[in-house]
Amino acid sequence: MKTVRQALIDEIHYPISExxxxxxxxxxxxxxxxxxxxxxLKSNEFKGAVADCLWSxxxxxxxxxADKSISLADRDIILRKANSxxxxxxxx
Length: 92
Fold this sequence. Notes:
Blueprint: H1 4-12, H2 18-27, H3 38-41, H4 44-59, E1 64-65, E2 68-69, H5 72-89
Antiparallel strand pairs: 1-2
Helix pairs in contact: 1-2, 1-4, 2-4, 4-5
């Protein structure tokens, strides 16, 4: 059984705090500890939480952790992906 929280962490691919992930899920009306379902995974709320977490990576200071870093080129790709998600769900 995978929780909604774990699914969001898995979608990001970069280190991000569980507390931040939980805040974004709650702000989107999702319960972090609920079991992940296909309906949640495809929901605008979950997609919005993914975009919110990606956006936070763009705003974060440059870092390198566990052999992962975000370059300026990476930030541009992440920004495009976050904006694409926001557009697909009708805004922030």
